[in-house]
Task: structure prediction
Amino acid sequence: IREKAEDMRILVEKTIQVVRHVASNLRPAALDLGLPAAIEWLAEDFQHRWEIECEVRLGSGETALDDSRATAVFRVVQESLTNVARHADASKVVIKLDAQDGRLRLRIWDNGCGFDPFEVRDKTGFGILGMRERILALGGSLKIDSQPGIGTRVDIDLPVEGATT
Result:
């Protein structure tokens, strides 16, 4: 019985660790400081890790968002930067965040090699699909503009109740 109880205790501890890991991945701790600070943290981390210049342009003031919107925008920025690092061969990325008239607008663009969006649409990866679904679920839109040799731009337009920047 003791052996079974010890096995169950170990299983419960492992389960708790997994739940904590999943929970921290659902809502990043960086968002505790607000979305602008979290984006600045992502950009700084990206720049140090990949040695690609990453400029952040924030509207004046604070961008107040509910957790679901802040997390979705954070994850889109995170996925976009991951795509730049893995595929773009870029030397610079710019992230611009602004909120006005009840809408949040995010633009991320790079000077990389670009791609044909129609070819990527048929791939099995879930990065772009996941970004689009996160934003659509919140009533927003996500547009990706890219061409081979031109770089890539990701635009988000998201309705936000009471957002001010």
Q: What stands out?
A: Strands lie at 53-58, 92-100, 103-110, 141-147, 151-159. The two ends are 60 Å apart (CA to CA).
